[in-house]
């Protein structure tokens, strides 16, 4: 699903009005209808106090129109107009008149002393600001927002949590609605998925208000949300007359004394995701452990006992996954540097492999184009420098990826894969996956997919999704806390099965 900027949403709005020859308030009516249906289907007439806080723009207009529908269906409502500007939108004014026609009189909030009481049992509808927010709210509006947040009431935000700008960090983190639920029109917003702004959104859902589908299909978006419909077409089925050579020979280079487990996890994940063969290159000390733990993996060792040195491999791997548990010993750094100069295979680079690159930036020119880098935020910062906001982070990562023609997988609650000026936002995964070795498993998965012929950016997008899905399935079996990295590997097969599972209706038809 595409993620549009505010500007693109306004354009989609305009093109819909033109194409369908409707009035803008018709679109507002559709939006309000969808909001009403959502609420009504859950409340079914329950007598709970619904307090609607409406701004003076179109977001407020949505709230006022919703208030009318709730009133017409007998709900107990209280409407407030948050009067932060004289520039009221036409559709807001129109809907205000319609509400007054029903003898519903809103209270106007103009200053801090006007704040009403909100009980924890109330439902608050937050329609103060939408995507038109373009500067810091006045302090008294900020106080109202903080007052709503402190009320412990269920807060339903219309389109976006009020106070949250779409393309920059909030001016004051306390002046943003903490939404229990966000009903977002047509497309989700990028801010729902970024670490600093996603915290304002507990749950979200998209409401289809019928914005021009041609416009949406033909407009290039900077970001895309990656769910099952986006991932399924990337899947490469295994053909009947294939053999292990068809699925590639991966080389995993990594490990150091006490960190051989990282290679065990990565190479096991690499095999489990379907790489035809996997060879691990590790320091001598890990030989017995690795051969015993994963007998399917072939093992080569360097000359040193505790650290990687002189990476000599007697075959041309299809793909190389390098860096897990590798450390930063001087011999390892020179071995990595020399290996980069002679290596011809595409690469996945993780962990200390990335830190070595950050400290020896001249090595970057030898990294094969289209290689996949999988940094967590600290590793990313070492690579691209400090950022002030999530938006700046994404811009810097995009620029870095473009400059070196690389794929960058920014790991996080919603991992974002950046390539060729675009970002792909993952939807699977859970907090249980914040556990040692989880990243090693991801490196193995992406490497193993590239070995099977997935293009690097597809391997990254597909691999991140599958890794998260394995985590979700592992969490339902074991719970968040007990979700170890090895459990992720165990669930890779289930994740494939879940991804490829036919919807029940289709299954009935084919049975
Ligand atoms: N797009 C669609 O398809 C549909 C969109 N719909 C709805 O419209 C919403 C967008 O509406 P909107 O453009 O009127 O903006 P909104 O967020 O209500 O803000 C109002 C105005 O406030 C101003 N302002 C900004 N910051 C401020 C501040 N800090 N303090 C004081 N004032 C401030 C600024 O005006 P300015 O003063 O800059 O001229 C701004 O224009 C959208 O989120 C959705 O709910 C649906 O109805 C149907 C289909
Ligand atoms: K809102």
Automatic annotation (TrEMBL):
One of its GO terms (molecular function) is metal ion binding. CDD domains: YXKO-related. GO terms for biological process: metabolite repair; nicotinamide nucleotide metabolic process. It comes from the Bacteria. PROSITE patterns: YJEF_C_2, YJEF_C_3, YJEF_N. Residues 9-217 form the YjeF N-terminal domain. AMP binds at residues 411-415, 439. NCBIfam families: yjeF_cterm (TIGR00196), yjeF_nterm (TIGR00197). Bifunctional enzyme that catalyzes the epimerization of the S- and R-forms of NAD(P)HX and the dehydration of the S-form of NAD(P)HX at the expense of ADP, which is converted to AMP. This allows the repair of both epimers of NAD(P)HX, a damaged form of NAD(P)H that is a result of enzymatic or heat-dependent hydration. Catalyzes the dehydration of the S-form of NAD(P)HX at the expense of ADP, which is converted to AMP. Together with NAD(P)HX epimerase, which catalyzes the epimerization of the S- and R-forms, the enzyme allows the repair of both epimers of NAD(P)HX, a damaged form of NAD(P)H that is a result of enzymatic or heat-dependent hydration. This is Bifunctional NAD(P)H-hydrate repair enzyme. The gene is nnrE.
């Amino acid at each position: 699903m595409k993620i549009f900027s505010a500007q693109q949403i306004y354009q989609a709005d305009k093109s819909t009005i033109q194409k369908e020859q409707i009035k803008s308030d018709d679109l507002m009516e559709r939006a309000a209808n969808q909001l009403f249906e959502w609420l009504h289907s859950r409340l079914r007439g329950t007598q709970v106090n619904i307090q609607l806080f409406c701004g003076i723009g179109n977001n407020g207009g949505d709230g006022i129109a919703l208030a009318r529908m709730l009133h017409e269906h007998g709900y107990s409502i209280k409407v407030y107009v948050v009067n932060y500007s004289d520039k009221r939108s036409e559709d807001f004014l129109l809907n205000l008149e319609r509400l007054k026609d029903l003898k519903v009189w809103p209270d106007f909030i103009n200053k801090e002393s006007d704040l009403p009481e909100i009980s924890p049992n109330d439902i608050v509808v937050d329609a103060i600001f939408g995507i038109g927010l373009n500067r810091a709210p006045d302090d008294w509006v900020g106080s109202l927002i903080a007052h709503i947040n402190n009320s412990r009431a269920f807060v339903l935000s219309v389109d976006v949590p009020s106070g949250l700008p779409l393309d920059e960090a909030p001016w004051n983190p306390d002046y943003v609605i903490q939404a229990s639920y966000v009903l977002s029109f047509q497309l989700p917003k990028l801010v729902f998925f970024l670490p600093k702004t996603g915290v304002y959104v507990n749950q979200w859902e998209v409401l289809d208000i019928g914005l021009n589908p041609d416009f949406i299909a033909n407009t290039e978006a900077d970001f895309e949300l990656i769910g099952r419909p986006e991932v399924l077409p990337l899947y490469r089925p295994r053909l009947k007359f294939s053999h292990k050579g068809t699925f590639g020979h991966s080389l995993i280079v990594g490990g150091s004394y006490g960190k051989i487990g990282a290679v065990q996890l990565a190479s096991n994940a690499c095999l489990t995701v379907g790489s035809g063969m996997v060879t691990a290159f590790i320091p001598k000390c890990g030989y017995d452990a690795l051969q015993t733990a994963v007998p399917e993996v072939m093992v080569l060792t360097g000359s040193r006992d505790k650290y990687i040195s002189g990476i000599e491999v007697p075959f041309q791997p299809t793909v190389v996954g390098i860096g897990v548990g590798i450390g930063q010993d001087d011999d390892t750094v020179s071995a990595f540097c020399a290996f980069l100069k002679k290596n011809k295979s595409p690469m996945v680079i993780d962990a200390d492999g990335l830190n070595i690159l950050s400290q020896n930036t001249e090595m970057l020119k030898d990294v094969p184009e289209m290689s996949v880098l999988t940094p967590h935020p600290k590793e990313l910062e070492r690579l691209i420098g400090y950022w002030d906001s999530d938006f700046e982070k994404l811009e810097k990562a995009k620029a870095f990826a473009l400059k070196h023609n690389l794929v960058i997988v920014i790991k996080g609650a919603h991992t974002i894969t950046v390539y060729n000026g675009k970002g792909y936002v993952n939807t699977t995964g859970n907090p249980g996956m914040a556990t040692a070795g989880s990243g090693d498993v991801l490196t193995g998965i992406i490497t193993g997919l590239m070995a099977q012929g997935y293009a690097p950016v597809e391997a990254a997008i597909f691999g991140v999704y599958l890794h998260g899905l394995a985590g979700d399935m592992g969490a339902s079996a074991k719970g968040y806390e007990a979700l170890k990295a090895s459990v992720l590997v165990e669930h890779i097969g289930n994740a494939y099965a879940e991804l490829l599972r036919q919807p029940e209706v289709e299954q009935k038809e084919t049975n």
